[in-house]
Amino acid sequence: MLALVVLAFIVTRIFRTRPTPKGIVIRNPVLGALNLEGLWVEDIVEKDLEILGPYFAEVRRSDDVPPLCDVLLLYGEINSSGALQNSPKPPNEIVRDAGASVVIIAINNPVENYSAMPKDSFESVTLIMTIDRRQWRFTSCLAKIFEQMKTDGVSLPLAWVKVGPQHPGAMHEDLPSLVCKLP
Q1: Which residue of 34, 58, 137, 151 has the lowest C-beta tally within 10 Å?
Q2: CB-based contacts of 94, cutoff 8 Å, min separation 6
Q3: Nearest to 176 by CA among 83, 106, 101, 77
């Protein structure tokens, strides 16, 4: 029985993705939200999902078990030793359980804490680390990126540089402070 479940999962993943000259495109992507911080971020989670949900075929959320998804919004504090503060699982297990190819740490964390994360924490996924959400700019930026991915079929890295050009002297006053790490 377990073999059938695993086979079904693999087949689903194969047929939901297709390579294009612009990168991997996921048909009918699922957005997941995992809130490890409890009530103090609940309003933020709700607002993020309200704004970002329309760019996805489905939205799943949880406060304990990682939802099966393609893009995971992870509301979790990274402590000074680089661990997820309120999680019984290490990041690589959360990623494995969610099946996500993109993980967005959706609350502010100091850059030093991200730097302290073990190298294998999120090595298999595109990781977006939030330094400063800068209020509405966080969801606005992600909405622009997901819109380009959905309507133009571009990859996340290409959409990222279109929304926030990566050249010396580029001004990003209308963007949050984010760092993107590719696998």
Answers
A1: 151
A2: 34, 66, 72, 74, 84, 87, 103
A3: 106
Could you tell me the CATH number of the domain that includes residue 83?
3.40.50
pTM across the whole model = 0.84
Q: Give the CB-side neighbour count of residue 164, counting CA atoms within 13 A.
A: 19
In 28-132, beta strands by DSSP E:
30-35, 58-62, 71-75, 102-105, 126-132
Q: Which domain, by its residues, includes 38?
A: 25-181
User: Residue 134 is encoded by which pair of tokens?
Assistant: 């800068």
Give me the number of domains the chain comprises. Answer: 1
Q: Mapping DSSP to helix (H, G, I), strand (E, B) and coil, where does residue 172 land?
A: coil
Residue 131 located in a structural domain: yes
**How far apart are alpha carbons 16 and 97 in whole angstroms?**
18
Residue 66's Cβ-count burial label (10 Å; 0-12, 13-18, 19+) is buried
